[in-house]
Structure formats: structure tokens, C-alpha cells
Specification:
about 550 residues, Gyrase A, domain 2, Isoleucyl-tRNA Synthetase, Domain 1, five-stranded parallel β-sheet, four-stranded antiparallel β-sheet, 19 helices
């Protein structure tokens, strides 16, 4: 309903400008939802825009527009939903009436679990690739944060009308895989004679576990036996770790639509073919025995080597092939969710999109900053190579899937995150996920009691008794939910949904602590029950997008 009212207001403002200032009829009209409700439910800066064209002050233009606008508004379908319009500091502010607020409740009851869904995305095909951890070790908390961000973003995008898919790119080739296999081999050889594991190899205990399982599976009893099965170590190691990765993701409620192995998509033959095409189009040149990609043509600070003078491909070469593959599969928009060590990657991969015949804007790269884990007030150090890290599995086992996902989303993706394991386990209002889930459970308990013991029923239309500031604030929050989802989709950032759910839970608790829901006035009780039930449904819808459960009892 917020979106409907916004669009209607845009039409009304356009009509007012056309009548009062026809020479500026094409000025853009931007309507925002102010964070401070004192500035209205909707605010438009059109007078500031018009002042540049008309060479008048915004206040003078507002005074010129106001009478015309009020007349058009009174004759429109919004006349009962907009209580008043005022001009302030060059802004035109619109305030909803009680009926406007009631319409949000009616929307929730009409749409229920579909509330928040829309067609903003126009079925545009999105591919979000995230996590994509090299199968060289268990998933870490850094991967966990990327998983929570990526999965939630896809949920939001699909809710607002995009067709988004989740994809995991399996880097099953390259130097790190060779190091992995060599590490496992050294641990296998340790069973026959003392070995020194080089520092550059993987040191974690999981390598020892893999070695033991390889020995058992292939019945290795001597170095001679190992030689017969030596060529199987790489495939075994990759399969072993990918099975573990998939299990961790499944238990974290992240289910990928597509698994894309590099060995099948970006093998040497495919790389050679794509580079030949790019060279034919003038985007690849040879210098000093190496092949260079003209990434500076799209704003990169320097051209990039794709094939070294020794014949080896750089990591950029298979990445170009992989992104071509995604575009070839019909995706109109591609999103790569990566860790903070990939900032330099952004201009070169956007350049690759341009060289492949697409707009660089068709490819977005989201950098998800690291999460620092605290236990008992102390920071836990992490290094995958040394084997000193907290895995995603440990987080799931210690705090659970719900708290894990929510806490990973508690800051913007671009901001560093501090994850307090003790707080995530705490069952109190200090724990934000508990605070929201408790609001949901509390409402469920009240509704159950009201319908069972008091015999009350919920109203779904015809509200007129909800008038207190706390009731209005709760209805306003409920109405904002679809707008929040669209906002998240526009900037590819789910944090606003997390903040919204915290604010919605706070609004409910404030209302509940200030007013009796089950009152002697049965009609008022029925409307208040409907109000909190609408809040519960929105909390449930939002938590579902985050991948967090909505408990009925706590």
C-alpha cells in the first residue's frame, strides 16, 4: 500500500507542477519515506528541484504549488488516506490519516504470507554466486557471513519480483588444489616414516582425517600401495571436502540452485577458445611472451596478464570464461559476493563483462567484510593454512543456525562484524534475534489465549478504534515492510531488513507494555488482536527471508 500511495502522490504532484509551473513539468519527482515521522509519512523535494529551473526560492515555489496541490489531492482517490500536507524548508510533506494506516492491516490480512511480494524486479534474471570456497578446508566464519548475505539477498530479490538463482563455483583445479593433494600425501606417508610438512601446505587436523580415510578406503599398507593410488588423492580430497561443505551449508539452511565446477566450465580448452575470440576482437595482445587483457579500456588502472610467458594461465583467464558461461546461460544480471581481499578484482572483472559484449553495470561485485569472533570476551585468531580457525560448523553447533545467520547479517556487508558467541546464546532482550523471536512467540501466545479463553475473533477489515500513538507507530512499521524489501533489492544489501525487524519488534513491545490487548471493550480488543497478529505475520515473513525460524513458544 505504501508503494501504491507513493505512485498516486507522484501523479498528483506531477499534475500540480504541470498546472502551476508548466515550463518545469519534466522535473524529476522523488518521494521518500522520512525516518523521522515528524516530517510526514512521505516527503518530496520537488521544490528544491524546481528552484534550479524557475530561479525562485524553494519556499516561494512551495507557496505557489500548495493551493493547487491541495485541490488536486482533495479530488483524488487519496483524499481519505492523506490527512494533511504541509510545506517545510522547501519540502512537501504528506501525513497519512488513520484510514491510511488501517489499509496496511487490511493488506496484511488479504495477502498473509504473500505480504511484501511484488513485481518490482520485472522477472529480471539474476545469478548470485557466493561462498565458492576452494575445497581446501572446512568453511570458515568468513564463508558463513557470505552465505548468510547471499542466501538472504536471493530470498529478497525473488520476493520483490526478480528471478534469482544461487550458484556455487567449485574451484577444483589450480595451485591450491595441488597443494591440498600434496598435504594429504605427506600425512599419508607419515604412517610409514617421519615426514616434515612444509609450511606452505595445509596444516589443519582435517588433513590428517582425510589421510586416514584415504588409507582405509584404498587399503594403503605401504608406500608401494600408495604409488598405485597416488593419482586418486586429488579427486578424493576435493570430493571429501565438498561433501563436508555441502553438509555445513545444508545445516545453515543455504541450498544452492547451481553447482558449477571449474573443471567443466573453464578447462584449458574453453579458456583457449574464449581468449582467441577476445584476441580477434582486439581485447587481448601479446607482450614479453605473455598475453594481456586490455582491462584499462573499461577503467582498470592497468592491463592484466591472462597467460604468463611460461604458458600458465592466471586466475583471471578462467574467471572470464566462467562469467561468459553465466551470461550465455541467460542471466541478465550477475552478482559476485566476495571477501575483502578481492577489491582489486572488481574493475578487471567488470572490464571482462564489457569485453564479452555486456555492460559492466550488468555485473556487480559485493565485498563482504570479515567477521571477528569473540568467545569469553577474547578474540579468536583465524588462519586456514595454519589450521587455526573457527569453522562455520563450530558456529552452528555452538549458537545454532538462527543466531548464526542473524548475527552475520547484523552489520552492512561493507562493515566489519564482531560476532559475540556468548551474546548469540543468551536468552534475553540483549540478544537481538531472541528479542525478535520472543515478540513473535509472545503474540502467538496472546492470540491463542484470546481465541481460546476469551472467544475473541480477529477483524480483517473495518478498523476504527486504533488511535493511540503506539498503535499508529506499529501500523506504520507494518506498512513499511514492502518498501524495505524493495530498498534492499535496489542496493543489494539485506541489512535494512534486519534493522526493520528489530524496530518492528521494539514497536510491538512498546505497544504491548503500554496497552491492554484483552480489554473489557470487546471491539477494541478484537482490533488490537488484529494489530498484533498483523505484526506477527510480518515478523514471520521477514524472519523467513533471513532464514531464521519463527517460534510459537519460547
Amino acid at each position: 500500500m505504501y508503494a501504491h500511495i507513493r505512485h498516486k502522490l507522484q501523479d498528483i504532484i506531477r499534475q500540480g507542477i504541470t498546472k502551476s509551473c508548466p515550463e518545469a513539468a519534466d522535473v524529476p519527482i522523488l518521494i521518500e519515506t522520512p525516518s523521522d515521522k515528524q516530517h510526514g509519512d512521505f516527503s518530496c523535494n520537488c521544490c528544491l528541484q524546481l528552484s534550479r529551473v524557475l530561479k525562485k526560492s524553494p519556499m516561494a515555489i512551495a507557496q505557489q504549488l500548495a493551493p493547487e496541490m491541495e485541490a488536486i489531492l482533495k479530488a483524488s482517490s487519496l483524499k481519505t488516506q492523506i490527512a494533511k500536507m504541509e510545506t517545510k524548508a522547501g519540502f512537501m510533506n504528506f501525513y497519512l490519516s488513520a484510514e491510511g494506516y488501517y489499509s496496511f492491516l487490511e493488506d496484511v490480512f488479504a495477502q498473509k504470507e504473500r505480504y511484501g511480494q511484488g513485481d518490482f524486479g520485472k522477472k529480471q534474471k539474476f545469478c548470485l554466486e557466493f561462498v565458492s570456497a576452494n575445497p581446501t578446508g572446512p568453511l570458515t566464519v568468513a564463508h558463513g557471513r557470505q552465505a548468510a548475505v547471499g542466501d538472504t539477498l536471493v530470498n529478497i530479490l525473488n520476493t520483490v519480483g526478480f528471478e534469482a538463482k544461487k550458484e556455487y563455483y567449485i574451484n577444483d583445479e589450480g595451485n591450491q588444489i595441488r597443494i591440498l593433494a600434496a598435504s594429504v600425501k605427506v600425512r599419508i606417508l607419515e604412517t610409514f616414516a617421519p615426514q616434515q610438512l612444509p609450511e606452505e601446505m595445509y596444516q589443519g587436523d582435517y588433513i590428517k582425517d582425510m589421510a586416514r580415510q584415504f588409507i582405509e578406503q584404498f587399503k594403503i599398507k605401504s608406500e608401494h600401495d600408495l604409488k598405485k593410488h597416488d593419482g586418486k588423492i586429488t579427486g578424493f580430497a576435493v570430493d571429501y571436502l565438498m561433501a563436508q561443505i555441502k553438509k555445513d551449508l545444508q545445516d545453515f539452511a543455504v541450498h544452492f540452485d547451481i553447482w558449477s565446477p571449474q573443471s567443466k566450465i573453464a578447462n584449458p580448452a574453453a579458456i583457449a577458445e574464449v581468449l582467441a575470440d577476445l584476441r580477434a576482437n582486439g581485447f587481448i595482445y601479446e607482450q614479453d611472451g605473455a598475453l594481456w587483457f586490455k582491462s584499462t579500456q573499461w577503467g582498470d588502472d592497468k592491463d592484466r596478464v591472462v597467460k604468463k610467458s611460461n604458458g600458465e594461465y592466471t586466475y583471471l583467464a578462467p574467471d572470464i570464461v566462467y562469467h561468459k558461461n553465466k551470461f550465455d546461460r541467460g542471466f541478465e544480471r550477475i552478482v559476485d559476493i566476495l571477501g575483502p581481499d578481492h577489491h582489486g578484482y572488481i574493475p578487471r572483472i567488470k572490464a571482462a563483462a564489457g569485453a564479452l559484449g555486456h555492460s559492466p553495470d550488468d555485473l556487480d561485485v559485493i565485498i563482504v567484510q570479515l567477521a571477528t569472533i569473540f568467545r569469553g570476551g577474547k578474540e579468536v585468531s583465524m588462519s586456514t593454512r595454519r589450521g587455526e580457525f573457527i569453522s562455520l560448523r563450530e558456529v552452528i553447533d555452538e549458537v545454532g543456525k538462527d543466531a548464526g545467520r542473524f548475527f552475520f547479517l547484523m552489520r552492512q556487508s561493507s562493515a566489519h562484524l564482531e560476532f559475540d558467541l556468548e551474546l548469540a546464546k543468551r536468552q534475553s532482550a540483549e540478544n537481538p534475534v531472541y528479542y525478535i523471536q520472543y515478540a513473535h512467540a509472545r503474540i502467538h501466545s496472546v492470540i491463542r489465549k484470546a481465541q481460546g479463553e476469551a472467544g475473541l475473533t480477529l477483524k480483517t477489515t473495518g478498523f476504527d478504534r486504533l488511535t493511540t500513538p503506539e498503535e499508529m507507530d506499529l501500523m506504520r512499521k507494518i506498512g513499511l515492510y514492502p518498501e524495505v524489501l524493495v530498498g534492499c533489492a535496489k542496493i543489494l544489501e539485506p541489512f535494512a531488513l534486519v534493522r526493520f525487524l528489530q524496530e518492528l519488534a521494539a514497536s510491538f513491545h512498546k505497544f504491548y507494555d503500554s496497552h491492554r490487548v484483552l480489554d473489557e471493550d470487546k471491539e477494541l480488543s478484537s482490533e488490537r488482536l488484529s494489530l498484533i497478529e498483523a505484526a506477527r505475520m510480518v515478523l514471520s515473513n521477514g524472519l523467513k527471508l533471513l532464514g531464521v525460524s519463527s517460534p510459537e513458544k519460547m
